[in-house]
Amino acid sequence: MHCPFCFAVDTKVIDSRLVGEGSSVRRRRQCLVCNERFTNL
């Protein structure tokens, strides 16, 4: 996963949650380069 702020490749997953009826997963990630946090589905 690429960071949307600095475009680095190194990210780690902080939190994972099922969305809706469990058909998708929402992941909270943190960039290891710029330390910004973002969410992806």
From TrEMBL:
* Matches recorded under PANTHER family: TRANSCRIPTIONAL REPRESSOR NRDR
Q: Please state the gene responsible for encoding this protein.
A: ybaD
Organism lineage string: Bacteria, Pseudomonadati, Pseudomonadota, Gammaproteobacteria, Enterobacterales
Q: Which GO terms describe its biological process?
A: negative regulation of DNA-templated transcription
Q: Which residues form the Transcriptional repressor NrdR-like N-terminal domain?
A: 1-39
Cross-referenced Pfam families: Zn_ribbon_NrdR
* MF GO annotations: zinc ion binding
Entry coiled-coil feature ranges: none
Q: What is this protein called?
A: Putative regulatory protein
Q: What is the organism of origin for this protein?
A: Escherichia coli
Among InterPro entries, the record links this protein to: NrdR-like_N, RNR_NrdR-like
